Amino acid sequence: MYLPDFLLPELRRHVQWFTEKEPDGLLSIGEKGAPFRRSTFGRKWRKARAKVGMPDNFRFYDLRHTGNTLAADTGARLKDLMVRAGQSSERAQLIQQHSTAKRKRKLAQRIDAEIRAQRQGPAAEKGVCEV
User: Which residues of the chain have pLDDT under 70?
Assistant: First the structure.
């Protein structure tokens, strides 16, 4: 898997501080070196979520949706998104991809630019509108 460069320092720090050191060790362990229990992870997640100002209803799993949406916003092809998320169906990909306000604004700006360009074209100068 390929990751964006900005994540590498964070990933290195996590591996250094929060993983078992054996080659097949766990990627996340608790303070006492044992695997996270579900209740411990939930507590840690809620604390981290509050610290960065995320809404209470934002689940850890929603990070997967966020990553998919960010990748889609870059112009990734459907197959690229499916491979990245480990999905075998287009339906699953569409469930995990969301529309954002930023993306909706960008689409509206592109539509506006396209219409303005068409209005300024040769047909507009002659008063002709092609349909």
Answer: 122-131
62 backbone dihedrals φ, ψ, rounded to 5°: -65, -20
pLDDT at 49: 96
Number of domains in the chain: 1
> Which residue segment(s) compose the domain that 28 sits in?
1-58
pTM, to two decimals: 0.64
Q: Which residues pair with 29 in a beta bridge?
A: 35
Q: Is residue 130 part of a domain?
A: no
Q: Is 121 helix (H, G, I), strand (E, B) or coil?
A: coil
DSSP 81-105: HHHHHT-S-HHHHHHH----HHHHH
Q: Does 108 reside within a domain?
A: no
